[in-house]
Amino acid sequence: MKLYLVAHTPIAAQETGFPREGGKPFFPGSLIRTSIEEALFFYALGKHSDFAELVRVFLMAGNFDKISSVKDFLLDRLCERYLELQELVLPEKIWLEEITIRLVQTIEVSSGRIIKKKEHQVFVGVAEFEAEIPQVIKYAGLSYCEGLARAELRHFRETMPKLVPFYEDLTNRLRQFHIPLRTGYWTDDPFGGLLLAYWRVKEVREVIKRRLKRDPLPETILYSPKDKATFGWVEITESL
């Protein structure tokens, strides 16, 4: 099925820019998969109490030394729950017609402090690709993106008020997106938004901060002053 990736705010592939083939830039399909996994993980924690308990127990008391990657372990459990994720086939490359350069700020969410500034390759617009996206991803994407946007908005009301109008508008528009996702290079946190569901669960949040040395809410986000928007908010849709 022909689908459209609509970048409602700037997206980036990696810190060094977009990969290319034959001189033409593309957005890796693996980044779409990552964003789908994060959304579905958030959704599954709220939908399936047994899955949520398994993850909670692992985060609270699991032996991290016996596995190669905490993130991979959690995603393996997600794939066991959702066969749709195992069967999902995405293109290796989503070709981009045009990329541009933006001055990008990396912002610490908790304080609003600008950690670094640099020029960066970004894409804003529409790109076509072929795939079959399971219906559950629509619900998962909305649930996750609303949760993430509201969590960031809650911080920025106090730490960076100039971002409040953007987030208020975004939270109002997300339900109009066919499949909302947060994708690409939008944070420096290696977990992305995978642990977001525990941001407001004090007991688990404190354990995550102690054992994984990070907060469930990503600690940094990328912001484009020109667009007055944070990075990565996209929609996958069947029609424009």
Automatic annotation (TrEMBL):
Protein name in the entry: Uncharacterized protein
Organism for this UniProt entry: Thermodesulfatator autotrophicus
